[in-house]
């Protein structure tokens, strides 16, 4: 029996395959991607998909029967885990590609997920944002549910909000329009109607940007204006899809027949409206895998809340919870600072923080620098960046992160003055930029009619052809002086030039037509080429990204936390925002602040309170980590038992979770050192401490495991991992309680294999033990 067949046999609900569907609303006519030379070769089998995953990631990938909740710390490979989960299910024949819907929050993240799934050989899986998935369904079902064509979707609300305000006798400037628009969006994703706005704001302790009664009036007028003009906005897409699925059972059944397996990334950012849509997609089923980290909740101003993540076990008592804490991104020094930030946090999200364990070699300590004023801080960052570039660090692997977009201009100017290329993050997606669309059109025309283009006469290879074509679009061999839009356009064209060079290195015989095919494929997957410049980005827009060197600038009181963060909840979200910034760095981290805004100004600022006890000379225990954060591992749910992850006393499930949090750190039974590595925790000893394993017992257990795996049609590690067998052979348990206490056994495996394992440990004949499966 194959591994895939074994999973289908034991988890029948996962094997309910839907019919392959035509390219209608589900697929939008998407076809399988052609092989790309810039993507690695797909694994040759389902089992090969699992290669290279750590034990917790492998658990995510192979636990295909929901519900599953993955608590994933920064840099722990969550995207890798969930894409391998989908790919393993598809490649093993357990999941029909068209029956899987993976949703996330940004087009970039959805594009990255599609790209990774393509690399793993799992074409045909839908990876979309909530809005994209909902819009496709709404467009398809609107004629049937409502009749006629779907109203036009407006890209921007500003003019509509301005017109609505004018109808109320209010003239708003640009800043006031932005604030009013943000409040309207918050109302809609939290399902708040105009009449309830004032009460909802008070209940959420939200600071309204103007009188709540006025905002409620503008909100109501805005909805009327949309109806009069026959248009809908971004949030209406979700609201209307929810309404259709609630009101039309036949349509809901059709959607549920198509999608039977759901994966939700960044689940801590789900709004109440998105959660409602997810529930309607699911119906009464529970084949759902959610992934998130409460410590990275930084979008509450948009209606996002980690409560859905933290209460997952309440809604799904039988859920499997997998905690990913092995940080593959950052050095121990960066991870130490990140853990230290969260160790001082408060609130519900802090109760469920994950204690990261770096898997990388040591690196430099984070650097802390105080400057007299903001221009000096920007110039100091530019000098350090210039030194990094001279040392061989690529510009694309360096980022400057700040709290507000208004801080960007100072750093743009400082980098431009130093002759350092840069790119601004948070603008349009790469392939949506006008200069990129125009450049690709020119390249496409050259691919068709290049033989008649005298500009290509001297172009001897693909890179020179691309340079010749893009020279007509404004590309030059040297970047333009200064900053702003001209520099941004040049950086976009330069990225295409670099892509052509890399493409040719992978395929020396590639033609311009081949490059166009590659660009089309990348456009569909939103797989943008790397822009060769230092990244300037706000902390919010940096979420999900990483660089070798990160400069966190403006880390001073009033900016971090921001001056308008007044409540405890708002201050804690600011701390989480700084945590996100810290965890973007792989190796080098520079933290800085200025005592004054401008030269000659009064030096009244002080470093952020979040750095107290963490930076040298700030007092307290630097980077204190109490060991109270959740460690990695797997928790199996039990039907009928409710509880949250680390719920405080007075809530359902509190005693059991509180007991877990109060558990003393695991120590090596040989030398007494505190254990943090997952493998060492299984052995309850350090890897380099002497083993007292019974070699004969270990070999009998290995032979027995091979027989069990063969009978079940599963890989051997699905029975017990090698480390668990070593732990059993070292402990030689005599009764079920002793065996159950060995990490990696658990109640399910104890019930299934306990009798055999105890018999082998007692010295009984192996054949006798094998006969009792």
UniProtKB/TrEMBL annotation:
Residues 1-29, 597-658 are annotated as: Disordered. Residues 51-331 form the UvrD-like helicase ATP-binding domain. It comes from the Bacteria. GO terms for molecular function: 3'-5' DNA helicase activity; ATP binding; DNA binding; hydrolase activity. Residues 691-771 form the HRDC domain. The keyword Nucleotide-binding applies. Residues 332-587 form the UvrD-like helicase C-terminal domain. It catalyses: ATP + H2O = ADP + phosphate + H(+); Couples ATP hydrolysis with the unwinding of duplex DNA by translocating in the 3'-5' direction. Keywords: ATP-binding, DNA damage, DNA repair, DNA-binding, Helicase, Hydrolase, Isomerase, Nucleotide-binding. CDD domains: DEXQc_UvrD, SF1_C_UvrD. The keyword Isomerase applies. Residues 637-658 have a biased composition (Low complexity). InterPro entries: DExx_box_DNA_helicase_dom_sf (IPR013986), DNA_helicase_UvrD-like_C (IPR014017), DNA_helicase_UvrD/REP (IPR000212), HRDC-like_sf (IPR010997), HRDC_dom (IPR002121), HRDC_dom_sf (IPR044876), P-loop_NTPase (IPR027417), UvrD-like_ATP-bd (IPR014016). It is an enzyme of class 5 (isomerase). Its EC number is 5.6.2.4. GO terms for cellular component: cytosol; DNA helicase complex. Transmembrane segments: none annotated. It holds the Pfam family UvrD_C. ATP binds at residues 72-79. Its cofactor is Mg(2+). One of its GO terms (biological process) is recombinational repair. Belongs to the helicase family. UvrD subfamily. This is ATP-dependent DNA helicase UvrD2. It comes from Streptomyces roseirectus.
């Amino acid at each position: 029996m194959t591994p895939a067949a074994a999973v289908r046999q034991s988890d029948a609900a996962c094997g309910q395959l839907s019919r392959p569907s035509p390219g209608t609303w589900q697929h939008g006519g998407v076809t399988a991607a052609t092989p790309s030379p810039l993507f690695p070769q797909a694994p040759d089998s389902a089992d090969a998909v699992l290669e290279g995953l750590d034990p917790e990631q492998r658990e995510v990938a192979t636990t295909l029967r929901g519900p599953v909740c993955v608590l994933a710390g920064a840099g722990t490979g969550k995207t890798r885990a969930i894409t391998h989960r989908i790919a393993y299910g598809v490649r093993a024949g357990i999941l029909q590609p068209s029956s899987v819907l993976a949703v996330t929050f940004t087009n970039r993240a959805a594009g990255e997920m599609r790209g990774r799934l393509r690399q793993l050989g799992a074409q045909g899986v839908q990876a979309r944002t909530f809005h994209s998935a909902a819009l496709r369904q709404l467009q398809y079902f609107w004629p049937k549910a409502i009749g006629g064509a779907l109203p036009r979707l407006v890209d921007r609300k500003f003019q509509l909000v301005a017109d609505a305000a004018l109808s109320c006798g209010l003239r708003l400037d640009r800043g006031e329009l932005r604030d009013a628009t943000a409040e309207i969006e918050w109302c809609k994703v939290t399902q708040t109607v105009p009449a309830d706005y004032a009460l909802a704001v008070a209940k959420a302790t939200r600071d309204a940007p103007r009188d709540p009664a006025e905002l409620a009036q503008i909100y109501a007028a805005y909805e009327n204006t949309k109806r009069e003009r026959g248009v809908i906005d971004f949030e209406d897409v979700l609201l209307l899809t929810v309404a259709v699925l609630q009101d039309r059972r036949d349509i809901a059944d059709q959607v549920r027949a198509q999608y039977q397996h759901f994966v939700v990334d960044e689940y801590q950012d789900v709004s109440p409206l998105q959660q409602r849509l997810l529930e309607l997609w699911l119906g009464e089923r529970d084949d759902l895998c959610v992934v998130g980290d409460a410590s990275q909740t930084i979008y509450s101003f948009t209606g996002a809340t980690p409560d859905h993540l933290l209460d997952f076990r309440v809604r799904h008592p039988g859920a499997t919870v997998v905690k990913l804490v092995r940080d593959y991104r950052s050095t121990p020094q960066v991870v130490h600072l990140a853990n230290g930030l969260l160790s001082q946090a408060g609130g519900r999200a802090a109760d469920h923080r994950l204690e990261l364990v770096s898997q990388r070699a040591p690196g430099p300590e984070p650097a802390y620098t105080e400057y007299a004023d903001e221009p000096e801080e920007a110039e100091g960052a530019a000098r350090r960046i210039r030194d990094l570039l001279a040392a061989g660090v690529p510009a694309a692997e360096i980022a400057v992160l700040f709290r507000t977009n208004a801080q960007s201009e100072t750093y743009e100017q400082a980098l431009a003055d130093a002759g350092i290329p840069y790119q601004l993050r948070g603008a349009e997606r790469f392939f949506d930029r006008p200069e990129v669309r125009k450049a690709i059109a020119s390249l496409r025309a050259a691919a068709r009619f290049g033989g008649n283009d005298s500009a290509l006469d001297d172009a001897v290879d693909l890179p020179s052809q691309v340079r010749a074509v893009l020279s007509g679009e404004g590309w030059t061999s040297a970047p333009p002086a200064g900053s702003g839009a001209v520099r941004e356009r040049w950086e976009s064209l330069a990225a295409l030039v670099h892509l052509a060079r890399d493409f040719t290195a992978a395929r020396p015989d590639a033609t311009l037509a081949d490059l166009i095919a590659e660009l089309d494929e990348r456009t569909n997957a939103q797989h943008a080429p790397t822009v060769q410049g230092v990244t300037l980005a706000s902390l919010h827009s940096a979420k999900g990204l990483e660089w070798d060197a990160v400069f966190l600038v403006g880390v001073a009181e009033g900016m971090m936390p921001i001056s308008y963060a007044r409540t405890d909840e708002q201050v804690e979200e600011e701390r989480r925002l700084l945590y996100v910034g810290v965890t973007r760095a792989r190796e080098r981290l520079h933290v800085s602040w200025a005592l004054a805004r401008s030269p000659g100004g009064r030096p009244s600022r002080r470093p952020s309170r979040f750095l107290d006890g963490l930076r040298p000379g700030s007092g307290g225990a630097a980077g204190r980590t109490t060991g109270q954060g959740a460690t990695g591992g797997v928790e199996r749910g039990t039907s009928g038992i409710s509880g949250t992850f680390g719920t405080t006393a007075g809530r359902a499930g509190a005693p059991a979770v509180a007991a877990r949090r109060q558990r003393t750190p695991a120590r090596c039974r040989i030398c007494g050192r505190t254990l943090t590595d997952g493998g060492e925790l299984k052995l309850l000893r350090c890897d380099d401490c002497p083993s007292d394993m019974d070699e004969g017992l270990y070999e009998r257990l290995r032979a027995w495991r091979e027989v069990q795996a063969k009978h079940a049609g599963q890989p051997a590690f699905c029975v017990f991992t090698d480390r668990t067998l070593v732990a059993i052979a070292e402990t030689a348990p005599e009764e079920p309680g002793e065996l159950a206490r060995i990490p990696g056994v658990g109640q399910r495996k104890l019930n299934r294999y306990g009798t055999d394992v105890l018999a082998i440990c007692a010295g009984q004949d192996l054949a006798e033990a094998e006969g009792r499966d």
